[in-house]
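Quality-control log, excerpt.
Job 1 of 2 completed; input and output follow.
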Amino acid sequence: MSNWIDVTTVSKNNSIYNNVKPYEQKSVLGKDDFLRILTTQLAHQDPSSPLQDKDFIAQMATFSSLEQMTNLNKAFDKFAGSQMNQYAAVIGKEVSWTPAGATSPKTGVVTGVSNQDGNYFYIVGNEKIPMENVTEINQVTTETK
């Protein structure tokens, strides 16, 4: 009869610290935290001096602004991800650009796209061409003779 329990696995699986978030995640307040603070404030307010209407409206306006900023941030992140897809569509096409300090344009086929500090570059050979320097994009045509 083996009625032994492995204590090491029991203590790891049933620890109260399994769902604890790191400090970095706790330091950011979100809309759920704001609502929790507001409801706690309403539940524990002094009955002889209740929350004034203007204060409550101001807090609700702040909450609404927070929610809209959160939604805007999510939409911007989604847009930034789709932007890379648009730039990637140029891979395999021929681009023309005028390098800084040069008078005549250069031409080459895009082999990749790079992102550094929020700025996008086309990779042509060993060069990184800033998007704003590209003056023309053409389909590569191969003529057989």
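Job 2 of 2 completed; input and output follow.
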Amino acid sequence: MSRTRPLPLLALAALGLVLGFLLSTVLAAQGLAVVVPPLSLALALVLIAAVLLLLAWPVRAAARGEKRVDPFYATRVVVLAKASALSAAILAGAAAGILAYLLSRAVVPLGSTLASGATLVAAVILVVVALVAEHLCSLPPQDDELDEAAASST
């Protein structure tokens, strides 16, 4: 599995931004309430980031050769990190779209703006932590020259 690249993250964030802004605009045009992420979502995203970092730490120790870890566990942590990065990117974009809509109004609702801003910050934190966890789960590069020298000496 390859590492998460910035382009898909940026594309998902842009998609989320457009969808969040358009959804808010359509709902407001129909006279309905704008969807505002609850503050508990921001707290949950930060909690997920902390748990992901705790799950990746033993894999880092195993990659350095300090202890052994189940390879399936390491694979699950890497997949969770990648999925967290991608889903948090689209959530960050959606929160940014909602925030942009709220800030473009003549009267800015403070509570909704703070909740959307908190969700945006928490989603960005989760993206960063997921990328760090993905890095912690990677194996150090193999030194082929040392392997060849050891093989030729025997």
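Post-run check on job 2. The chain has five helices and no strands.
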